[in-house]
From TrEMBL:
PROSITE patterns named among the record's database cross-references: G_PROTEIN_RECEP_F1_1, G_PROTEIN_RECEP_F1_2
Organism (species): Lates calcarifer
Transmembrane portions of the chain: 25-49, 56-75, 87-106, 140-159, 194-214, 235-258, 270-292
Superkingdom: Eukaryota
Record's protein name: Olfactory receptor 10H4-like
UniProt KW Membrane keyword: yes
One cellular component (GO) term of this entry: plasma membrane
Keywords, comma-separated and alphabetical: Cell membrane, Disulfide bond, G-protein coupled receptor, Glycoprotein, Membrane, Olfaction, Receptor, Sensory transduction, Transducer, Transmembrane, Transmembrane helix
Recorded name of the encoding gene: LOC108886917
G-protein coupled receptors family 1 profile domain boundaries: 39-287
Length: 314
């Protein structure tokens, strides 16, 4: 039996399918990461620099973009370097750190989406109470909780997994993932199953909260033209982001637990990393295109940048 203390590194076998086209993948991955950095940083700076956007909805959106940068930082730098390397390993500590960052990012995403759904519920269903309910102080507290609670949940998950005795160090993915480590255990995983069930149930509750709030939102939207306008403009992008994150994560969870060995490795790889590619890239684009205030501010910043370039040339 191999003790956890004797394992220095984990090997990542998912890269075996990338050997023949590693340069192409490296270029596309680097381009994707640069695009993620660009769209998220642009939206964050737009919200921070414009006083008119210092409202709860936009502050939550800023938090969502910061979380996107946080989560992708736990994956892309290591992934890009591994694409050009012949040895695909990660240290024991580095593996658990990657698990913590990537999956706490997913949990913060869901918590932020719940907060945004609550904000829209108050804005549309209780408009006269909006400024008192969603005050600056309360918004700050809720955003802090949307980060602290997921981080604490992930600490529980990582701690329970780190106490397992492992019989191997071979992870069949492109990055470290909690369930892949648990499957290497040669000791009882009962505690891990209980913790996992608790966390999954807790975040299923998040989804139910969002669905409940949207049932109320739809009822209110049918009452007046103004409510319908608010719902279309601010709730549609939220629903698209929720669908985006949920579908991408569902692919990863279903593959991790029930994936077939007959599935081609490149298909497995895509299923495993799409929640780290699609949501961080599309979420800010969706909000940037649909929300009028964001779109107009971005246009103004771009025009100002073009004018400054012309002045320099002159």
């Amino acid at each position: 039996m191999t003790n956890t203390s004797s394992i220095a590194v984990f090997s990542l076998s998912g890269f075996n399918a990338t050997v023949n086209y590693r340069v192409t993948l490296f270029s596309l991955t680097l381009l994707c990461y640069c695009a993620i950095l660009l769209v998220n940083v642009s939206l964050i700076l737009t919200i921070i620099l414009d006083q008119n956007l210092h409202e709860p909805m936009y502050i939550c959106l800023c938090s969502l973009c910061i979380n996107g940068l946080y989560g992708t930082a736990g994956f892309y730098p290591k992934f890009v370097s591994d694409l050009l390397s012949d040895i695909h390993v990660i240290t024991y500590v580095g593996c658990f750190l990657q698990v913590f960052v990537i999956y706490s990012y997913v949990k913060v995403d869901y918590s932020t989406l719940v907060l945004m759904a609550y904000d829209r519920y108050v804005a549309i269903c209780r408009p006269l109470e909006y400024h008192s309910v969603m005050s600056v102080q309360r918004t700050a507290v809720l955003i802090c909780l949307s980060w602290l609670v997921p981080l604490c949940c992930e600490v529980m998950v990582v701690t329970s997994t780190s106490k397992l005795k492992l019989c191997g160090s071979h992870i069949q993915k492109l990055y470290c993932e909690n369930w892949s480590i648990v499957k290497l255990a040669c000791s009882s995983t009962t505690v891990n199953n209980i913790v996992g069930l608790f966390v999954i149930s807790f975040y299923c509750g998040h989804v139910l909260l969002i669905l409940g709030s949207y049932m109320q939102l739809v009822k209110s939207a049918l009452k007046s033209k103004e409510c319908r306008r608010k719902f279309t403009q601010t709730c549609v992008p939220h629903l698209l982001c929720l669908l985006n994150v949920t579908s991408a994560l569902l692919f990863d969870v279903m593959y991790s637990r029930y994936g077939s060995a007959s599935v081609a490795q490149h298909v497995k790889n895509f299923m495993a990393i799409q929640f780290l590619m699609i949501p961080p890239l599309l979420n800010p684009i969706i909000y940037g295109l649909i929300l009028t205030k964001i779109r107009s501010r971005l246009s103004l910043f771009m025009m100002a940048g073009q004018k400054s370039k012309l002045r320099v040339k002159v």
